[in-house]
């Protein structure tokens, strides 16, 4: 497909999305809920076809040398597919944000002002690897009253097509207009450029992927971007941490699933913590490669030397950088210098220290005595998520239904005129 054909195809998709957006914005909650239940049923009905398509993607990715962590993100199985369908149903069961009154006030002149949630319009989602994002992004956009244009990664193209076909069939069976959710069918990287230049056609771009993808989107986009940066997350073990709790949380935070954005990538341990060795051996025994500074390496012979890049690396693998620090302020300073403002945690029994950490760490999610693996919209009770926003504007943290809406002011009067 040459550039002119690609531009024409995308313009057609964008025009369709723009044409159906007003109808989606005013759909009754019951209609959207029913359509999502139809979509979940369609995913289950197409299970064999989706898994077969995914098996082809995985085989091609293995041939192309995709990393183990990326293969884990790509791979579907019956349990993950059922979780995908259940996630669609979970979104259907959430309160509809459209029309919700954020606040209300009355002016001295009798004017009544309300701020009301409304859809954004047309949302473009650009993502890599995880085919479940096709389902999550589609149903979140629709439930929030938006049209969506999805562009997944080339490594998951067969899976994405199969999932999208099921969802599209389910949504239309449930009464939604055709074109509510469209999938860019080509793997040509130029399609991303078309989306980024779609000023006036797309209202918001949501990138979900690696650092290179997000950097390109932020550099080239002519439409607003809701960025999901890399998860360069930290767990800090304070001197007042319970040793058993600290070991259990850290091992889970790193190794439960290494390929998710909530995985801890750097472990910071207070130099005054009584005995770091059980935490380190717990990680090593579970198969985690540790890279540490000189103080950490002195504690165990199997720990490798960390270099400067390790403190700035999102491994997405069973690798963890480890450093001793001089108390909570040093931990906060390290996180400020090397973190990505995604998710950072403190493990301590000292409430004052915890509150200091919470107040001073400038991340979208800050945790106390909990695994960073909880950085997930579902675990927050938000249903599926479209990503975790690490910026400071519009939405921050897990972006679910409310994050895909904006608001308008409604002013109700009784004949007032301004003097």
What does this protein look like?
By secondary structure, the chain is of the alpha/beta class. The protein has 2 domains: 3-228 and 387-412, Aldehyde Dehydrogenase, Chain A, domain 1; 233-374, Aldehyde Dehydrogenase, Chain A, domain 2, CATH 3.40.309.10. The protein is built from 14 helices and 16 strands. It has helices spanning 3-25, 29-45, 47-63, 68-74, 78-92, 132-143, 157-173, 190-196, 211-220, 243-255, 277-285, 294-297, 328-338, 351-360; strands spanning 101-106, 112-119, 122-127, 147-151, 181-183, 204-208, 233-237, 264-270, 289-292, 304-305, 319-325, 343-347, 365-368, 388-389, 397-398, 405-412. The strands form 4 sheets. A 7-stranded parallel beta sheet has the order 10-9-11-8-7-12-13, with helices on both faces. A hairpin with a 7-residue loop joins strand 14 (388-389) and strand 15 (397-398). The longest helix is centred in the N-terminal third of the chain and has 23 residues, at 3-25. The protein is globular, with a radius of gyration of 23 Å. 49% of the residues are buried.
What is the molecular shape? globular
- List SSEs in N-to-C order: HHHHHEEEHEHEHEHEHEHEHEEHEHEEEE
Return the CATH architecture of the largest domain: 3-Layer(aba) Sandwich
Kindly report the average pLDDT value: 94
Largest sheet: 7 strands, parallel
- Physical arrangement of strands within the biggest beta sheet: 10-9-11-8-7-12-13
In total, the number of domains comes to 2
Assign the CATH superfamily of the largest domain.
Answer: Aldehyde Dehydrogenase, Chain A, domain 1
Amount of helix: 40-55%
Distance between the termini: 61 Å
């Amino acid at each position: 497909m040459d550039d002119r054909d690609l531009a024409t195809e995308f313009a057609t998709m964008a025009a369709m999305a723009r044409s159906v957006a007003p109808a989606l914005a005013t759909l009754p909650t019951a209609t959207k809920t029913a359509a999502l239940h139809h979509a979940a049923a369609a995913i289950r009905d197409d299970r064999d076809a989706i898994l077969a398509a995914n098996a082809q993607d995985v085989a091609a990715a293995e041939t192309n040398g995709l990393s183990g962590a990326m293969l884990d993100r790509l791979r579907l199985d019956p349990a993950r597919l059922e979780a995908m369908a259940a996630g669609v149903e979970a979104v259907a069961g959430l309160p509809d944000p459209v029309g919700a009154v954020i606040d209300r006030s009355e002016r001295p002149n009798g004017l009544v002002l309300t701020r009301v949630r409304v859809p954004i319009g047309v949302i473009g989602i650009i993502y890599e690897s995880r085919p479940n994002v096709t389902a999550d992004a589609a149903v979140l956009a629709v439930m929030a009253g938006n049209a969506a244009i999805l562009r997944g990664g080339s490594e998951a193209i067969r899976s994405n097509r199969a999932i999208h076909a099921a969802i599209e069939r389910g949504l239309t069976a449930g009464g939604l207009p055709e074109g509510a959710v469209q999938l860019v069918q080509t793997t040509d990287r130029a399609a991303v450029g078309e989306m980024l230049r779609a000023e006036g056609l797309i209202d918001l771009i949501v990138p979900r992927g690696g650092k290179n993808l997000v950097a390109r989107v932020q550099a080239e986009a002519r439409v607003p971007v809701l960025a999901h940066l890399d998860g360069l997350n930290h767990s800090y073990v304070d001197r007042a941490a319970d040793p058993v709790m600290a070991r259990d949380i850290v091992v889970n935070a790193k190794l439960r699933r290494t390929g998710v954005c909530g995985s801890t990538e750097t472990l910071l341990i207070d130099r005054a913590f009584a005995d770091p060795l059980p935490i380190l051996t717990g990680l090593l025994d579970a198969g985690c490669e540790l890279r540490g500074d000189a103080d950490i390496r002195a504690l165990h012979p199997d720990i490798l030397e960390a270099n400067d890049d390790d403190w700035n690396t999102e491994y997405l693998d069973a690798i963890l950088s480890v450093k001793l620090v001089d108390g909570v302020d040093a931990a906060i300073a390290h996180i400020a210098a090397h973190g990505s403002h995604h998710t950072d945690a403190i493990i301590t029994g000292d409430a004052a220290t915890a509150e200091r950490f919470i107040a001073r760490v400038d991340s979208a999610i800050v945790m106390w005595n909990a695994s960073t693996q909880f950085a997930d919209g579902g675990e927050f009770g938000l249903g599926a998520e479209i990503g975790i926003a690490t910026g400071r504007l519009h939405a921050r943290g897990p972006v679910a239904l409310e994050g895909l809406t904006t608001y308008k002011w409604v002013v109700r009067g009784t004949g007032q005129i301004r003097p």
